[in-house]
Amino acid sequence: MKIECDIKPNRLFAPQLVGLVSSMGKNGKPNVATLAWITSVSAEPPLISIALGRSRYTHECISHSREFVVNLPTMELLKEVQLAGSISGREGDKFEKCGLTPSASIALKTPCVKECAAHIECKVVDTKEAGDHTLFIGKVVATTCELEAVRDGVLDVSRIKPVLHLGGTFFTTAGEVVDARNI
Ligand SMILES: Cc1cc2nc3c(=O)[nH]c(=O)nc-3n(C[C@H](O)[C@H](O)[C@H](O)COP(=O)(O)O)c2cc1C
């Protein structure tokens, strides 16, 4: 039996892969924030959309610099993920507060988060207002990842434990890769 449920609709659309999104402030200093509303929106050209609340400092940074990096944290970084998603870079150096290290990107001025397993560098090609968030659509200009993060052209979640957000302070991860050709 199905019941009408008292849950925010976005929480049924879960778990969602969490990114630590790095950006560059007008002051030339980098910022990092936790985002779960991230999705691919085109394969060719490769485009990624991130949804940012208008109050976020990251919103201000990306509106100015027109670039961002989606960094993929693993479960070892869960504390840092929670912290980067709870405080604002407006109040000081969030990389330092979270104990994260900015490291040079390949194609952007915005640095990557060194501790993450993969990095997707994006240049903003479009924006769209959507309710209380803005969608920033970024063209992927470079991707880097740990050697062991990928097998058969997909993320090897048996070795790399991604952070998946359920809502609020609840998270999960993945551990099994299933090839549908074998079932
Ligand atoms: C797990 C998690 C996921 C989040 N996802 C988003 C998101 O997709 N979009 C968003 O605008 N804020 C999201 N937030 C909230 C921001 O990370 C938070 O407001 C942060 O303080 C913004 O930092 P900033 O002001 O330095 O940009 C998320 C927070 C957490 C903990």
Descriptive overview:
With 183 residues, this protein is mainly beta. The protein has a single domain, classed as Pnp Oxidase, Chain A. 14% of the residues lie in helices and 40% in strands. The protein has four helices and 14 strands. The chain has helices at residues 9-12, 57-65, 78-84, 94-98, and strands at residues 16-17, 19-24, 30-35, 38-42, 47-53, 67-72, 102-103, 112-113, 118-130, 133-145, 150-151, 154-155, 164-167, 170-172. Strands 3-2-6-9-10-5-4 form a seven-stranded antiparallel sheet. The chain has a three-stranded antiparallel sheet with strand order 1-13-14. Strands 7-8 form a two-stranded antiparallel ribbon. A hairpin with a 2-residue loop joins β9 and β10. The longest helix is centred in the middle third of the chain and has 9 residues, at 57-65. The protein is globular and about 50 Å long. The chain starts with 8 loop residues before the first helix and ends in an 11-residue tail after the last strand. The model has no long low-confidence stretch (mean pLDDT 96). Flavin mononucleotide binds at residues 18, 31, 33-37, 51-53, 56-58, 82, 85-90, 94, 165.
